[in-house]
């Protein structure tokens, strides 16, 4: 374990650098292949609308993977993330155009825990909608 | 139709080992656009104290979700998978997943509920390596949306 952030250097409210992650249909096809989740709601507009969705949506697990990058980029060693949980509150809708969607992620230290650990609370929005709820990670700091 | 409450606590047999490959980790990291060298460069991973490249935190879901297929496709349980959405996901790591791991998953049904016509299923996946060491536990909440009125 080699976290580059020291427990002594953070306090409740410390903000992690926010990041924005673009998502296009191309991104989703790559993620489907890498993750093995080929559910057509993530690439087939006809199928997605037939099951009542407004359009193709991003995999919830893709959004979850993007959000935690705010933490892993901050702490340096991804293994410092010892717990990570989210609730999928709204889908990220990915139109079939050049822009796609944007997932905007912010995070801050919400609690100081024993053993040089902290709880980080994340926020993730897309198109003004909160897409993850109860998004929390426990991180082992140096 | 509401799911059978008697399935709560049911554990399914461990899956055959999944061997974690360096190139699969690289493919996953590229798919999420993550350039952290710990995912692709063994030397960078070693500099952080790991024996080989490690996987991003959500990588293991592909393995635990496949294992959860034993549950969602259990004909006795009768979940309508075409109406399933992913509600919550949580991981608790004992150590990171790394290249060379041979991982088995034991899936257990933790809760079965019905709310407003939706069926809600909580599945826990305990992931162990070849030596039996606990690596990570994944909790997956699936919601089968109520069928629309005809």
TrEMBL record, chain A:
GO terms for cellular component: fatty acid synthase complex. CDD domains: SAV4209_like. Signal peptide: none annotated. GO terms for molecular function: fatty acid synthase activity. Residues 13-107 form the MaoC-like domain. InterPro entries: Fatty_acid_synthase (IPR003965), HotDog_dom_sf (IPR029069), MaoC-like_dom (IPR002539). GO terms for biological process: fatty acid biosynthetic process. It comes from the Bacteria. Belongs to the enoyl-CoA hydratase/isomerase family. This is Dehydratase. The lineage of its organism: Bacteria, Bacillati, Actinomycetota, Actinomycetes, Kitasatosporales.
From TrEMBL, chain B:
Signal peptide: none annotated. InterPro entries: FAS1-like_DH_region, HadA-like, HotDog_dom_sf, UPF0336/Enoyl-CoA_hydratase. Transmembrane segments: none annotated. GO terms for biological process: fatty acid biosynthetic process. One of its GO terms (molecular function) is (3R)-hydroxyacyl-[acyl-carrier-protein] dehydratase activity. Pfam families: FAS1_DH_region. It comes from the Bacteria. SUPFAM superfamilies: Thioesterase/thiol ester dehydrase-isomerase. Residues 6-137 form the FAS1-like dehydratase domain. Belongs to the UPF0336 family. HAMAP family: UPF0336. This is UPF0336 protein AS594_14780. It comes from Streptomyces agglomeratus. The lineage of its organism: Bacteria, Bacillati, Actinomycetota, Actinomycetes, Kitasatosporales.
